[in-house]
Amino acid sequence: MAQTLILVKGIADVAVAAILTFKPAIIYESFLARAVHSFSELHLTDASTAPGFNQSVACMVAAVGVGHVVASKSGPASHASVFAMNLTFSILGFLACALPSRESGIGSATMLMTSCNHLLFSLALLWADPGVLGGRGSGTGKKRS
Q: What's the pLDDT at 143?
């Protein structure tokens, strides 16, 4: 199950990268981003402000997605690395949104939305393979129905 989660996350990341490449407003101005903005008062990202930077984000998301796809085929030993990478992103994203960055504009509704996504994925991966906490995937995560 953990390998399937990692594969699906990888495919989703590649799809998000394609959206960020061709029509970033779909994500940056989505209903969910606006709802997070209303709830958190963090600013909405404007895709037209820095198209070159946005494209570099799209490239990074695609690279991470491909990494997830490869990791999904690499067996349980890759689970801990995938877990650590996603949890680290989530923690750093939450810190960017929570610290005095509100004044500096570092945190954004999109960052908070993405941090929640990475946290939920990390928790799902932990549930599927508790061995990720031991520094290596156990491959013995209980099958859940």
A: 47
The answer to the question of residue 26 being in a domain is: yes
The continuous run of DSSP H or E covering 99 comes out as: none
Q: Which amino acid type is present at position 117?
A: N
Residue 121 lies in a domain: yes
Q: Tell me the H-state helices in the chain.
A: 2-22, 25-28, 31-40, 51-72, 79-98, 101-104, 109-128
Residue 23 included in any domain: yes
User: pTM of the entire structure?
Assistant: 0.85
Q: What is the identity of the amino acid at 65?
A: G
Domain of 22?
2-133
Number of other CB atoms surrounding residue 135 within 10 Å: 10
In a domain, 139, yes or no: no
Mean pLDDT for all residues in the chain: 88
Nearest in space to 126 (alpha carbons), one of 141, 115, 108: 141
What tens digit of pLDDT does each residue of 54-85 get? 899 999 999 999 999 999 999 999 999 999 99
Total domains in the fold of the chain: 1
Tokens 């799209």 belong to 58
